[in-house]
Write a structure and sequence with these properties.
Layout lengths: L2 E3 L6 E3 L2 E3 L11 H13 L4 E3 L4 H4 L1 H11 L8 E6 L1 E2 L12 E2 L3 H15 L6 E4 L8 H14 L5 E4 L3 H9 L5 E7 L6 H4 L2 H7 L3 E5 L12 H13 L7 H10 L6 E4 L4 H5 L11 H12 L5
Parallel strand pairs: 3-4, 3-12, 4-5, 5-8, 8-9, 9-10, 10-11, 11-12
Antiparallel strand pairs: 1-2, 6-7
Helix pairs in contact: 1-3, 3-4, 5-6, 9-10, 9-12
The chain binds NADP nicotinamide-adenine-dinucleotide phosphate.
Length: 300
């Protein structure tokens, strides 16, 4: 599987990224099971893993890190992405009164140090500010991200769920490039394609990562849009055994912006075939057929 070099960095991410948000939801959270997931990804060239400090009530990085601790040779075979700034209400932080965002220097630095400790590594390949913070001091946050890159604790920095003015403000206060914006995009969540977000990312040379590329599993429910688009996805996936999730990934992969889908299945069998998504051809008209089936109306 080829990879995509992040703008103005030395970091490349695999074309499909494996997201670990749901790692702690698996019935089996043993280090052996985590290792099996890592191996199935690496076997296919899925070498980038998407974390956040808060995933699994602050447990997912720790669970994943146990596998890295058990086999130190794994770290050099992968890229680790993590995020921070969401302060959850949690038994781990009993003093917190309200869920909030924190982009202060102290918070970001502490969160990165925790991620490094839990993941048993000395650096993150990419750190993202998880959500736009309405109380952000852009100068302080920008300085902090610059210093983290300079120190080598993180190789590259970016944002998630940001709108253009939000990343432009932060970027204007820092010297290293915000190279990624990770946002929700899927056949069922198309707004970024038409509200100017994806256009602005291309204008500013900000790499797109797509979270919840199956709409968090909604594609497999009785949701009306899901029911409309599933038969077509199934048909498009026939060359790879009819796995419609793979056609949903292929729809994102086909876009000229070279979107990186962040996949979230915990199922080992599903993980095993993920790379087949890259074999599904999706030309312009097919792409619009999927769009039209999902939205239920032809484009204006
Ligand atoms: N930056 C952000 O704000 C943000 C927000 C959300 C997520 N993320 C990232 O994006 C990653 C992916 O998000 P996601 O987990 O929502 O991705 P997703 O791929 O859209 O959804 C995964 C869900 O779909 C289910 N699923 C997959 N294939 C299925 C099938 N054939 N039949 C039935 N159910 C199926 C999975 O269940 P099984 O496990 O049983 O397969 C899982 O519950 C996360 O791990 C995280 O790294 C980032």
């Amino acid at each position: 599987m080829h990879s995509i070099e992040l703008p103005d960095t030395q970091v490349s991410l695999s074309r499909l990224v494996y997201g670990v948000w749901r790692l702690a939801d698996d019935n089996d959270t043993s280090t052996d099971q985590v290792r099996r997931k890592i191996d199935r990804c690496l076997e296919q060239g899925i070498s980038s893993f998407d974390h956040a400090d808060i995933y699994g009530n602050y447990e997912c990085e720790r669970l994943f890190g146990q596998a890295l601790k058990a086999d130190a040779s794994l770290r050099d075979q992968m890229q680790l992405v993590s995020k921070c700034d969401i302060a959850l209400i949690s038994d781990k932080y009993p003093q917190r009164r309200v869920k909030h965002y924190d982009t202060s220097a102290a918070y970001i630095n502490q969160s990165v140090d925790n991620s490094l400790k839990h993941l048993h590594t000395d650096h993150l390949d990419l750190l993202l500010i998880h959500r736009p913070d309405p109380f952000m001091d852009a100068a302080e946050t920008g300085r902090t991200l610059d210093a983290l890159v300079k120190s080598g604790k993180v190789k590259a920095v970016g944002v998630s769920n940001f709108k253009p003015d939000q990343w432009r403000l932060l970027q204007s206060r820092m010297s290293h490039k915000l190279c990624v914006n990770q946002i929700e995009m899927s056949v069922l969540e198309q707004s970024a394609f038409i509200d100017g977000t994806l256009d602005a990312m291309q204008l500013d040379n900000v790499q797109a990562m797509a979270w919840s590329p199956l709409a968090g599993g909604r594609l497999f429910t009785d949701d009306a849009a899901a029911k409309r688009v599933k038969p077509l996805l199934q048909q498009l996936a026939e060359p790879v055994g009819g796995r419609l999730d793979l056609a949903a990934f292929a729809w994102l992969l086909a876009h000229p912006a070279k979107i990186l889908p962040v996949v979230g299945t915990n199922n080992l069998e599903r993980i095993s075939g993920l790379a087949d998504a890259l074999k599904i051809e999706m030309d312009r008209e097919t792409w619009f057929e999927v769009w039209t089936a999902a939205t239920g109306v032809e484009v204006p």
